[in-house]
Amino acid sequence: MTKAKVKFLILGLICHAREKFCVLGNEAMEEILQLKKIAEDLAIFWGHEDLENLFADSLDYILK
Q1: pLDDT along the chain (64 residues), means of 10
Q2: Is the pTM of this model over 0.90?
Q3: Domain ranges across the chain
């Protein structure tokens, strides 16, 4: 999969995580951490290690 497709997929996961946090607050943290793991796994699986931290970097204010 191309780097652009992986990036857009991760960006979709980021939007989904933000929405979950807005609706459920801290109750969504377990699911958000699962989405983070999925995003990292996708980046590594497709050989785009530079995108591995995109999810965490974009949601650092939630994950702290």
Answers
A1: 97 98 96 98 97 96 89
A2: yes
A3: 3-63
Alpha-carbon distance 56 to 21, whole Å? 14
DSSP 8-class letter at 47:
T
Cα dist from 64 to 4, 6, 9, 18, 33, whole Å:
27, 25, 23, 14, 11
Which alpha helices (H) appear in the chain, and where do they start and end?
A: 3-24, 29-45, 54-58, 60-63
**Region of residue 33 (left: phi > 0; alpha: psi -120 to 50; beta: else):** alpha
